[in-house]
Design brief:
This protein is α/β, with parallel strands linked by helices. 45% of the residues lie in helices and 21% in strands. The strands form 3 sheets. Strands 3, 4, 5, 6, 9, 10 and 11 form a 7-stranded mixed β-sheet that branches. A two-stranded antiparallel ribbon has the order 1-2. Strands 7-8 form a two-stranded parallel ribbon. The longest helix has 27 residues.
């Protein structure tokens, strides 16, 4: 028999994820619609369950400890697996109604998909169309491609410049990757861009292979005749990478969308590099001609394509 007495419940893991994303108990409480005391109690219970110190608290917010960084990566994966489980149960339980299954890689899922979902619902309400339940699965670029090929989802949104030829695609936006460090890092006060040779010699915090962030950085380095950087730490989620950089483990390239609030608060500093501007496309991907998509998928695609990003 498997004993899971040190595994927290999903609600606690979800609260932990929001705390790590906002960097603050009070901000997490506002986002979750809970009291600050309730969120604090959940975090204390999580630390008691795991018997680990996960958060370093200060008057300005919270930071993840090394144990917290490790748990964050696992928590994100557990929550993603739980979402897939729930979707499978719903699909096989005989529930009826209009539905649309999509998948998105992480920067898109965190920063653009929620906005598209709200606009999609408003559009349906304005036209008095039947409600469409949208299920969103989150993974890296290769995960999204796999979900699409296995017909788990009808429409995917990815961040990689490298797309397989068997899938249809449309560029819906562009994204900028920036090198970020802590204010105490030696690169934070440089008067000139970091040379490509220095980047090649520096171990970075990186996403796993198969992620759009990793692919875009590899392409940018290859244009300068440089092999991919060696990782100081390899993590499976964007939020975990961001937390590792804030903790001072090593620099990283991250989406400007992801670190905008950290740059404004001076938790991180953007550092120019000799790579110039590192951009990547945001693509919608699907199987076959666009007219073969369901009406809901075509409507969602058109909305995402026309939305301000």
């Amino acid at each position: 028999m498997l004993y899971l007495n040190r595994v927290p419940d999903l609600t606690t893991l979800e609260i932990f994820r929001v705390v790590t994303q906002t960097g603050s108990i009070s901000k997490a409480a506002r986002e979750l619609g809970m009291s600050q005391q309730a969120v604090s109690a959940r975090m204390r219970a999580l630390e008691a369950t795991t018997r680990l110190t996960l958060l370093q608290r200060s008057p300005t917010g919270v930071q993840l400890t090394p144990h917290g960084l490790g748990l964050q990566d696992h928590a994100d994966r557990i929550l993603e697996a739980a979402a897939l489980f729930q979707k499978h149960v719903t699909a096989t339980s005989g529930e009826r109604g209009a539905s649309l299954n999509i998948a998105a890689s992480q920067t898109l899922a965190e920063h653009l998909v929620p906005r598209w979902l709200m606009a999609f619902r408003r559009e349906l309400a304005a036209t008095e169309a039947s409600p469409t339940e949208v299920a969103v699965t989150v993974g890296n670029t290769q995960d999204v491609i796999k979900f699409l090929r296995s017909q788990v989802v009808e429409l995917g949104f990815v961040e990689s410049p490298n797309l397989p030829p068997d899938l249809s695609h449309r560029v819906i936006a562009t994204d900028q990757l920036v090198l970020v460090v802590t204010p105490s890092h030696r690169w934070a006060t440089l008067s000139s861009p970091v040379p490509v040779s220095d980047l090649a010699r520096t171990a970075l915090v990186m996403r796993e292979e198969g992620s759009g962030t990793r692919d875009a950085l590899d392409v940018a380095l290859a244009r300068h005749g440089t092999a991919p950087c060696a990782p100081a730490l390899e993590l499976g989620t964007t939020s975990a990478v961001r937390s590792a950089v804030v903790a001072g483990i090593a620099p990283s390239f991250l989406s400007l969308r992801t670190v905008a609030s950290d740059l404004e608060a001076r938790r991180l500093v953007q550092v120019p590099t000799a790579l110039g501007q590192v951009t990547r496309p945001f693509n919608a991907i699907w199987h076959g001609p666009v007219h073969r998509l369901s009406a809901g998928a075509r409507q969602f695609l058109a909305l995402a394509n026309g939305a301000k990003s």
